Structures are given as C-alpha cells and as structure tokens.
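Journal club prep, notes for RB
We'll compare a predicted complex against what the paper describes. Inputs for the iron/sulfur cluster case:
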Amino acid sequence: MVSANTELAYDNKIETNVVPTTVDAAINWIRNNSMWPMPMGLACCAIELMAVAASRFDIARFGAEVFRFSPRQADCMIVAGTVTYKMAPHVRRIYDQMAAPKWVIAMGACASSGGMYRSYATLQGVDRIVPVDVYVSGCPPRPEALLDALVKLQQKVRTEPALSRQFVK
Ligand code: SF4
C-alpha cells in the first residue's frame, strides 16, 4: 500500500516564502531601497544636506544613508549649493564617473536655477551640465525637503523600466 507523502506534495513552508513579482519590480525595489548618495556639497545648502544624515532626520529610514565620496560607488548625486563655472566641469566629470543607472537631485535655489547669483561666475542651474531628476526649492531647503525629494525620486524609479535605465541619459 502506498501512503501519500503530504510533506512533498504540499510544503506550506515553501509557499509562504515565495513572492511572485516581475523583474522590473524586483530591480526597482532594490534600487529604491539602496540609493547611495554622492554628496556634491558646494555651498551653504551642504549644511542642510549634512543635517539630513543626522539622528533628527535620519535618512537611513529611506535606505539612503550610505554617502559615498567615490562616484563609482554612488548612484544619486545630490548637488547642494551654488555651482560656479569653475566647479561645473568637475561636477560633470564626477557625474560621468558614476556608474549607470544614476540620478541627480538639485538641492536649493542655487543648484536649481543659480538662485540669487545672477553673476558671470555662477551657472544658472545645474541642469545645464547634468540631467536633473528632482529639484528642491528653497534657500536653504530644510532637511525635510530633501527627504521629500528622495521619496519623489524613489517613486519615479519605481515606475521606470528597469533594464533600459542601464544606459546613460
Ligand atoms: S540656495 Fe541659499 S542656502 Fe543654498 S547654496 Fe544657495 S544661497 Fe546657500
């Protein structure tokens, strides 16, 4: 007489550990929760950028606390502060050295539009040299505004076709 092996026929432990999903959703979930910033602190906005990593605001809650000072290990450049023409080529070079896929947040009025510096020395928006995904208004923006930008960027990444984002814009 053959006895039914219920252990093999229906393993309840396996069933609860399997999550059906798509490749896009899985890759975007990983990218969303491991956004490693490249801190491009160029002026006073960088102080607010530093504050966002401190305990009061704690960017670690969003999986983005691993600030890397090596562009090869970062995927989200946060341009915080005034971009002068002197610094612009270096900002672009660091962006080029970041591995794709990569994103950019322009933090503050200066990075977004030149701010109050309508002068010959200041780039009128970092989007003239790198593609910006999210702009943060304010002078300076509060750390909460940067967190809000990070959440918006995560929402954007969540809906992107994951594989085509491998290539540089
Ligand atoms: S936006 Fe304001 S706080 Fe930020 S770098 Fe410009 S002047 Fe400084």
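Talking point for the session: The CA atoms of residues 4 and 10 lie 11 Å apart.
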